[in-house]
Amino acid sequence: MKVSGAAFKTLDEITPSDRPETGGKAFNCARLKQAGFPVPDGIVVPADATDEEIARLRDHPWFEHSDRTPSVSPSARRESGELRGLADAPEAAGEREARFAVRSSGLDEDSEGHSFAGIHETRLNVTLAGLREAVAVCRQSAGVEQALAYRRAQQLPAASLRIAVLIQRMIAAATSGVAFTVNPVKGENELVINASWGLGDALVGGTVEPDEFTVSKRDGAITSSRLGAKGGADSGTAALTPAQIAELADLLRRIEQHYGAPQDVEWCHDGRQFWIVQSRPVTTRFEKGVRPLFGSTHDIEWTRANLAEVFPDQMSPQALTAYIDLLNEAERRFMGKLLAPYEELGPMVKAFHGRAYFNLTQLRRVCALTGGAAADFMRSMGHNDEIQPADEIAAWPPLGQLLPILPDFLSVAVKQLRAPRLFARHQQRTSAVIARLSGADPRALDDADVWAVIDWWRLLAPEYAEIVLVLAAVMVHEVALKKICDQVGFPYERLVLPQLAAGERSVSTQQALDLVGLAEVARHEPAVVRYLLGDAGEYRDYRTALRGTAFLEALDRFLDRYGHRGPYESDWALPRYREEPASLLFAIRSHLGASAPVDLEALAARQAREAEEAWHAFEAALGRWQRLTLLPRVRMTVRRLKWQYVRREECRSDLTRVIAHLRAWHLALADRFVARGWLDRANDYFLLHLEEVGAVIEDPGSAPQLRDIAGRRAADLEAQRGLRLPLLMRESELPRLLHRADAIAAGDEVQLLGLCVSPGCVEGEVVVMRDPGEFARMKRGAILVAPATDPAWTPLFTLAAGVIVEVGGMLSHASTIAREYGLPALANVKHATEVLKDGERIRLDATGGRVYRIRN
To answer: Does residue 105 contact residue 84 with C-beta atoms inside 8 Å?
Structure first.
């Protein structure tokens, strides 16, 4: 045995890096003990300990200091009335040999959503001689039917069956119990304490009825009490005195503050003091409509409302895993302690069946810590129908919870104020990054040099993404404007939407306008018109056919500016417009068939006029004093909101430009992997995770496994292709929601509702498209209906008369382009791509937030 402690570690020696092998229970006890909470001393048998090491466990130096069990004299216990129920405790007749509590500590136990309470084995009052057997019993309990059934119900992998074991000094408990720092039934922010005589195993096992005390967190008052049938002659006497309840309540509040989230705590009292033997996140499901304290949900809420617009329904595994790592690191750097530790509330981004989701539970916590209302960001994500009345309440947290996160809160606020300076730095950095990526030909470098550049960008990306997070935080401005508009009695949309549409164009809208300009260039060259109208839509020979034309020169200038973009451009596994411009040429062809070209100058003039009229109407609604105080503030906030919308699109374009250059470096490796016989196709390279690419470059001897890895990932993608994942879910609900995914009926609704993101009203024929690759189906003057859109859809916007998307808010691509291009648009129209059918006529009243189906 490694007496140095390499195999076994005491609670004082455990670090966060030990969490994967010590399990949730042991890690939480270590965390509490190291923070100064009264946790019985202990030692951990890690999950990877061998039988030979366990056979020598009792020789560990820790046991030399554990030869006597902590105890208290019978007289002291009698004075407090707590000797009842201790007849079987080994210390009742005086101090005897050391006794231990031996508890299982599953690797996925006591985590958010997976408590395993009462599932795995615990042995109490174990002697030194019985230690080895008790450890074996705990380790074996991972495979009993009760544990396996729990794992099946929680969708946990079989690979998590290994178990660590926590050995602690046995406490001679006079009173024991469990407590919750949030009401597990009502979700109310109060303490609930259960208590009974003696050891807590009977209480946890449900064989006794405990006393129950409810305590106010605000002033410590006992708001309700109920004595249970605890057993024994004195079962009618409370197991805890009022003074002890106050002492325990203070301890529970401090534990919750330490974790930053409500806790389920097991405790005991030895006649002199309280001991904490376990703490884990609350895992009780609250009633719908009750707003619990942030983070107090039995499993995490996830949303893909934002990511569904940015990422394709299925990304390449390489890009997906890289983005998850990038975003989690970037969010942690940006938010700091505003985010709870991952072991408590999970990461900010996670993939389910190949789709990326944001952690809504973490976002709720951020909102609660910063005094915001959850309803605001729920609306911004399009989850209006999930908002509960309690979500509308905005309140600052207690000072004790606010102080630890104050530096990070101020850091985020300062970054918002410094956004223009951060954006300028971002532009300089983008130029430097592109200069490095374009300064060498990756095909002329060896593998190690190519990988060094890719790895350099991978490490830089989280810092690079900071400006994106800063610019995406427009909600604070939107909420402020909405409050002022409500105060004045003026519609928010009537004031703000015209301002966002007028003035400076975003880079994505300018792309659409420049595409229309290309169509006008083509219109003046008959040879170009003949080619574009005569091709079937593939345009594979466009360079040969259009050589020497002014249109081809103009197209090349367009591609110099926008050629880095393309369908689902976030995924570097997919080609760019420069590689495959067919969708651009098809959009140009469609404009050539129009009798009247788009009058861009008239559009800009109309938008400027509508913006000015909105300002005049708003000003007319103000009183004299409000014009002096509110109006300047509103104008400044609107300008800042417009600036952030425009700069956000520019940052996104910059990131895509970097990715387009980086794609060339990846393709260089992909071609080599195929040439060496490591992979069958260049696209298989993007089935590999970046860590796997780096590993095979460092050790080419591992290359034979790449083909099998790519084959498994391709099979996984195919199996997941037909899945319809929800936009909003609790993690535990996913299996049920997946099962129902194909049962969504097309419906026969006459009217659909949505969020107005660009006002106006239009009638037209519907074209339902789920992928911009279907561009050849688009008709000029049709109303485009899509799940979501990214800049790849921009050419189609130039053909549409209106836009309807299933997801997206005011910040979405569809909203920005539709507003600036003057198209009526609705977002968050649930199941629009299934309810609406190709060819049917509808009336899109975006201003009123409705879609009317026109029946024949």
So the answer is: no
The conformational region for residue 469 under phi > 0 = left, psi -120 to 50 = alpha, else beta, is alpha
What number is the average pLDDT over the span 497-501?
A: 90
Is 284 a residue whose pLDDT tops 50?
no
* pLDDT at residue 151 greater than cutoff 90: no
Tokens representing residue 775 in the block: 């561009």
Under 8 Å between Cβ of 104 and 141: yes
Rounded distance between C-alpha atoms, residue 203 and residue 207, angstroms: 6
CA angle 551, 553, 554 (to 5 degrees): 65
Measured in whole angstroms, the distance separating CA 343 from the mean position of its chain's CA atoms is 14
SS3 state of residue 801:
coil
The residue ranges of every structural domain in the chain are: 1-172, 427-454+461-675, 677-722, 743-853
Number of H helices, E strands in the chain: 31, 23
For residues 344 and 260, the answer to whether their CB atoms sit within 8 Å is yes
- Name residues whose C-beta falls within 8 Å of residue 734's C-beta, 6 or more positions apart in sequence: 155, 352, 725, 726
Given a cut of 50, is residue 118 above it in pLDDT? no
Superfamily of domain 743-853: Phosphohistidine domain (3.50.30.10)
How many angstroms separate the CA atoms of 38 and 685, rounded? 53
* Integer Cα distance of 178 and 168 in angstroms: 18
pLDDT score at 231: 56
CATH code for 1-172? 3.30.1490.20
Q: Could you read off the pLDDT of 32-62 as tens digits, one per residue?
A: 999 899 999 999 999 888 888 888 888 888 9
Does the pLDDT of residue 378 top 50, yes or no?
yes
The torsion of the CA quartet 699, 702, 706, 709, rounded to 10 degrees, works out to -120
